[in-house]
Design brief:
Blueprint (H helix, E strand, L loop, with lengths): L1 H15 L4 H15 L5 H13 L4 H39 L10 H26 L3 H16 L3 H18 L16 H24 L3 H15 L4 H12 L7 H11 L9 H8 L6 H31 L2 H27 L6 H16 L4 H15 L1
Helix pairs in contact: 1-4, 2-4, 2-5, 3-4, 3-14, 4-11, 4-12, 4-13, 5-14, 5-15, 5-16, 6-14, 7-14, 8-9, 8-13, 9-10, 9-13, 11-12, 12-13, 15-16
Length: 389
């Protein structure tokens, strides 16, 4: 049944996708594009580009969109649950003090996970580059994008670059058979508009409700919904926003915040799942499991409303010849964004010695040429890291 397939595929990714948002997109590409062929490389790149424009966690939004395309609205929800569930459970248990393993001290295998993420991202960039940058013009766009972002790193600059090369594509790329269009989701525009309206209604009304009704739950929902709705650039960017919401207010002390931040970077799945940890350790009620669920849903709800609301209109736009030419430039820029991220933060956080580089090329060999499943390479790298570090 397609619902179970969507859920368990996302669950597997939630258990094995280490390395942060950019690495997640690489794992998604390997699973959804290469293996299951649920979406083509061009449609996937279009989707990644769209999620770069939208606020919220890009990798989670891509997963929701693929779930929506595969199995409708329920498929989108199941995809989010599957991908988010493993990290959420780990973070809540850690927050409640149930976990007996201090993962922050397991430097050998944590470092191994960072190293294998380099190989996974490199493989994804190579695969996307071959399909999305087949000529010198688009290769140049990818390299220029990468160089600019390596000199001036900014989430808003990423959006500006995508817009610029999208406009460039309209004027300088010609219509040809190189402009494939694979439908993602034939959504209902009326329903999509309703979701978009709800997104803005909640964003604007929650701060007023917070002032009118002295209810702690409303305060939590407002803080986490606003953080999820206004952050551009992925999970790492939301962390300082959440810190500004929960530490000065006294809900979570700074030591607890930093401890949760540390483990969030050491486990698979979306960094936005950190919101469940904050809800669990909050000093005010609701906390524990109930607080964790409330904060988790509030943080991810804006992303869900936006992606479900935008996709029906996006599908119409993608069928327009000018937009499709524009996407050639945007997709090439997306490859450049990933290429820049391969160095910073993926490479710089993992490769410190010849051993690290040797392990990367070993992982890349099995991923790219032996076609070994990524989860097998991840587990093998963890085992190897116990002996070489």
């Amino acid at each position: 049944m397609k619902y179970f397939e969507v859920f368990f595929t996302a669950l597997k990714l939630g258990c094995t996708s280490f390395g942060g948002p950019i690495a997640h997109l690489s794992y998604f590409h390997d699973e959804y594009v290469t293996k299951k062929k649920w979406i083509s490389a061009h449609a996937y790149a279009d989707l990644v580009a769209l999620c770069q424009f939208l606020p919220g966690p890009a990798s989670s939004q891509v997963g929701m969109a693929i779930g929506l395309s595969r199995a409708g609205l329920l498929g989108s929800i199941l995809s989010w649950i599957g991908f988010t569930l493993p990290s959420t459970i780990i973070l809540i248990l850690f927050g409640l003090g149930i976990s007996t393993l201090d993962v922050t001290k397991q430097n050998h295998w944590l470092h191994g996970l960072k190293v294998v993420a380099v190989a996974v991202v490199a493989q994804a960039i190579l695969g996307m580059g071959k399909k999305l940058c087949p000529d010198k013009e688009r290769i140049t766009i990818a390299i220029l994008t990468s160089v600019i972002l390596l000199f001036f790193s900014s989430a808003f600059l990423q959006v500006a670059i995508l817009i610029f090369f999208g406009i460039f594509g309209i004027f300088f790329f010609k219509s040809s058979s190189d402009l494939p269009h694979e439908p993602l989701h034939k959504g209902n525009k009326s329903i999509g508009l309703g979701f978009l309206v709800l997104f803005f209604v909640l964003l604007l009304s929650l701060p007023f409700l917070r002032e009118l009704l002295p209810n702690q739950t409303i305060k939590l929902v407002d803080s986490f919904y606003r953080a999820g709705a206004l952050v551009f650039g992925g999970g790492h960017v939301v962390l300082p926003l959440l810190q500004a919401e929960v530490v000065p207010s006294g809900w979570v002390n700074n030591d607890l915040f930093l401890a949760g931040y540390g483990i969030s970077n050491a486990i698979p799945g979306p960094l936005f799942a950190f919101s469940s940890y904050l809800g669990a350790v909050s000093s005010v009620e609701p906390n524990g499991w109930m607080g964790a669920i409330i904060c988790l849903v509030a943080a991810f709800l804006p992303s869900f409303l936006l992606i479900v609301g935008v996709l029906p209109f996006w599908e119409t736009l993608r069928s327009n010849p000018k937009i499709r030419k524009s996407m050639l430039g945007i997709n090439a820029a997306v490859v450049g964004i990933l290429l820049a991220a391969l160095y910073q933060p993926v490479w710089t956080n993992a490769i410190f010695s010849p051993k690290d580089f040797a392990l990367v090329i070993f992982c890349f060999l099995f991923l790219e040429y032996w076609k070994t499943p990524s989860w097998v390479v991840v587990l093998a790298t963890v085992l190897i890291s116990f002996f070489i570090y």
